[in-house]
Amino acid sequence: MTPRDEEIVTLLCFAVRFFSLEQVARTWWSDQPREIRRTRQRMLRLAKNRWVRPLTILARPLLKMEAPIFEWRLGGDAPDTAAVSRMLRKRWKEPAHDVEIFLATPRATAVLGGGALGSMKNLCQTTHDLHVSEVFLFYRENRPELASLWVGEDSVIPLHEHEKRPDAVLLNDAREILRVVEFGGAYKPDRVQAVHDFCRQRNLPYELW
């Protein structure tokens, strides 16, 4: 694998559940049609060598991830859950469509580590997981020092058995959680409150995108 290949596959093992072809092309090649074709060829070569698995899913079009809808720090005010919920839900205006994606394979996790499942965990969460990947790519481009601390949900070790795992956390060298990162799909107020309560009770700063 090239260094670029290794970065993509490693992120699929540790950071996100999958990347779309468009995300891979835009981030590591370019979004020009010719480059998208080259990206697909390269990713299919990785698939042939059993590093990634290609799939086509149904997901809503990508939103532009530029900033969290709500952030909370220790000692900060609780969210206005109704207002946050309205902002989250009003974003969804376009129907789902076919999206070409790539996941890490069991071979990749056996070699590189990480918690990638090698398959789709929940087909009802494709839009959600796609946007978690988009938030990570925002971090990679704009906050690279923090992106290096990012650990995705399937690689997070829960604080307690059977406890909910956040979409992602930022872990320091001491394996302490510096920040929780959650993508709020169409969360209702009670779901926003649940995220806040989970983090507040554990003294964990969080971002809700």
Could you estimate the helical fraction of the residues in percent?
40-55%
Number of helices: 8
Sequence of strands across the biggest β-sheet = 3-8-7-6-5
Structure classification: alpha+beta
Write down the overall mean pLDDT.
Answer: 93
Shape: globular
Q: How many separate structural domains?
A: 1
As a whole number of angstroms, the C-alpha radius of gyration is 17 Å
End-to-end Cα distance, whole Å, is: 33 Å
Order of helix and strand elements from N to C terminus: HEHHEEHEHHHEEEHE
Write a brief caption for the model:
With 209 residues, the protein is of the alpha+beta class. The chain has eight helices and eight strands; from the N terminus they run αβααββαβαααβββαβ.
In words, what does this structure look like?
This protein has 209 residues and is an alpha+beta fold. It has one domain (3-208). It has helices at residues 3-14, 21-28, 33-48, 81-89, 106-112, 126-142, 144-147, 189-201, and strands spanning 19-20, 52-59, 70-72, 97-104, 150-152, 168-171, 177-182, 206-208. The chain has a five-stranded mixed β-sheet, with helices on one face. It has a three-stranded antiparallel β-sheet with strand order 1-4-2, sandwiched between helices. The two termini are 33 Å apart. The mean pLDDT is 93.
Write the topology of this structure.
Elements: H1 3-14, E1 19-20, H2 21-28, H3 33-48, E2 52-59, E3 70-72, H4 81-89, E4 97-104, H5 106-112, H6 126-142, H7 144-147, E5 150-152, E6 168-171, E7 177-182, H8 189-201, E8 206-208
Parallel strand pairs: 7-8
Antiparallel strand pairs: 1-4, 2-4, 3-8, 5-6, 6-7
